């Protein structure tokens, strides 16, 4: 073979000039060199911190299935968010834990719900913090399903009306983004229309576009007391074996007006993150969910893995796969680690 050097920008062909001329270890020699050629970046600015808000005052109760995460009343929520924001986390996602549940989830869309109060308090104390709100009825219904029931079936189209009402409530309280997580067909369009009609053209929609029916939501369901009373969510969440379908879900949500699309969970679905990013080129979010969090915490507690390294490794993997932003319960801790 001659000494002809070829430059392959895609980097997919083996180098023409083999060892000993090519030594990939040269670029791994020191941290300074590694940093110079590092491909994916991870910064606090990429992270969104999910928080749970409950009724009461001065409440900060650890969630048993998610050690290190808390149910906070509005006053303590503000403190939690302020600390993360100080470390550089730009955004929080709120989940409400209402005291009262009913068949239609009226605490979600009625006056003065827990989320509306929490959003207002956060915006007042931390005007630069972005506040995202979860749009889903499940924590608010006594049956634990995401919408209006007809017998044992979740009625898609009647649920849309209530979701749209919920989103408008949240926007009028000051939410910057609404994040529909229910997987009803047509919800993004219904929410966009309702927001626009109510004068909230500037409020964005981050849709849980590819949400899989996953075992990794287990700890969250304990945390939010939202396990369904009967049945499961496989009739509206996606089959873990499918990826073409994820692209269809994303395409529909974008057509209906989603500004950012999310893939959830994150680690078991990194291939989906990459395909969505490559195919659509829009901002993509990934959600490192409660089960992913709990696994790392549990393994680290037993000294099976190094907690800090594992946190940062999973987060940078999600960025490498193509996610622009990451929802993670490690947001505040990771931001502290990243700042050194
Ligand atoms: C729905 C919602 C869920 C999660 C985020 N939004 C629960 C579910 O689908 O059961 C799960 C997040 C997690 O597991 O961390 N409101």
Which CATH class?
Alpha Beta
Strand residue percentage: 15-25%
The unreliable regions are none
| CATH superfamily caption | Aldolase class I
Radius of gyration equals 22 Å
Number of H/I helices = 12
Helix-strand category: alpha/beta
How many DSSP-defined strands?
12
Explain what you see:
- The protein has helices at residues 31-37, 74-86, 106-109, 114-125, 156-173, 187-197, 218-223, 244-256, 270-280, 290-301, 307-320, 331-339; strands at residues 47-54, 60-63, 66-73, 91-97, 130-135, 149-150, 153-154, 177-180, 204-211, 260-264, 284-288, 325-328.
- Strands 1-4-5-8-9-10-11-12 form an eight-stranded parallel beta barrel, surrounded by nine helices. A two-stranded antiparallel ribbon has the order 6-7.
- With 340 residues, the chain is of the alpha/beta class.
- The chain has a single domain (43-339), classed as TIM Barrel (Alpha-Beta Barrel).
- Bound molecules: ligand PBG.
């Amino acid at each position: 073979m001659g000494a002809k050097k070829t430059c392959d920008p895609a980097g997919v062909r083996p180098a023409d000039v083999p060892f000993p001329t090519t030594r990939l270890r040269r670029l791994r020699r020191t941290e300074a060199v590694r940093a110079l050629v590092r491909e994916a970046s991870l910064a606090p600015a990429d992270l969104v911190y999910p928080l749970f808000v409950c009724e009461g005052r001065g409440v900060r109760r650890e969630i048993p299935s998610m050690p290190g995460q808390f149910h906070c009343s509005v006053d303590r929520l503000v403190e939690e968010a302020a600390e993360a924001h100080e470390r550089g986390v730009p955004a929080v996602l709120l989940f409400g834990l209402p005291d009262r549940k009913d068949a239609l989830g009226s605490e979600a869309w009625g006056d003065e719900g827990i989320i509306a109060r929490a959003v207002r308090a956060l915006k007042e104390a931390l005007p630069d913090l972005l506040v995202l709100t979860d749009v889903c009825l499940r924590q608010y219904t006594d049956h634990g399903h995401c919408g209006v029931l007809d017998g044992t079936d979740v009625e898609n189209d009647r649920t849309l009306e209530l979701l749209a009402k919920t989103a408008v409530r949240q926007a009028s309280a000051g939410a910057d983004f609404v994040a529909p997580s229910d997987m009803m067909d047509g919800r993004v369009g219904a929410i966009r229309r309702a927001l626009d009609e109510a004068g909230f053209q500037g409020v964005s929609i981050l849709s849980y576009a590819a949400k899989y029916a996953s075992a990794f939501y287990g700890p969250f369901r304990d945390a939010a007391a939202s396990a369904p009373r009967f049945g499961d969510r496989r009739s509206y969440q996606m089959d873990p074996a499918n990826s073409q379908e994820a692209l269809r879900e994303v395409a529909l949500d974008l057509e209906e007006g989603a500004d950012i699309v999310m893939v959830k969970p994150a680690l078991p679905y990194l291939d989906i993150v990459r395909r969505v990013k490559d195919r659509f080129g829009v901002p993509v979010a990934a959600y490192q969910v409660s089960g992913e969090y709990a696994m790392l915490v549990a393994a680290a507690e037993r000294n099976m893995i190094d907690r800090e390294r594992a946190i940062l490794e999973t987060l940078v993997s999600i960025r490498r796969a193509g996610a622009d932003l990451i929802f993670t319960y490690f947001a505040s801790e990771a931001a502290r680690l990243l700042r050194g």
